[in-house]
Amino acid sequence: MLMNKYKNLPLRVGVGIILLNKNNKIFVAKRIDNQKGNYWQMPQGGVDLNEKLLQAAKRELEEETSIKSVELIKEFDGWLEYNLPKNLLGKIWKGKYRGQKQKWFVMKFLGNDEEINIKTKHPEFLEWKWIELGKLTEVAVNFKLNVYKKIKEKVKIIIN
Question: What is this structure's pTM?
């Protein structure tokens, strides 16, 4: 349950990218600002004013991973949402949001691993790896688990 002073905050509009390699493994990375646990996430981020969602997804992917060589496979219908845990409310996103509402895109990585560089201008990740779809919910941080469960089910249909 959200604490009263945060319950009326809006959700931040964002995008997420499910990046599949040629073996249908999923790109995940470990955040610099969450080193306490063994949590990994897919690339994601906010949408700029007047930015199209697919444009935002490609921009975020490049900003976080340097990856440009992608092909869109599918844009998920609808939005996936999560609320921040109490310990992060009022701290991230300048305290303006209670969670995120995200549009997710499945993309195929057309390049090779040498293209991937997480040491970007404003790095967000410590390390990255490719994982099997089945492992996705095992590496997710708790407050994103429901989103990752839904993604896992949708992606399973696409790659089978």
Answer: 0.94
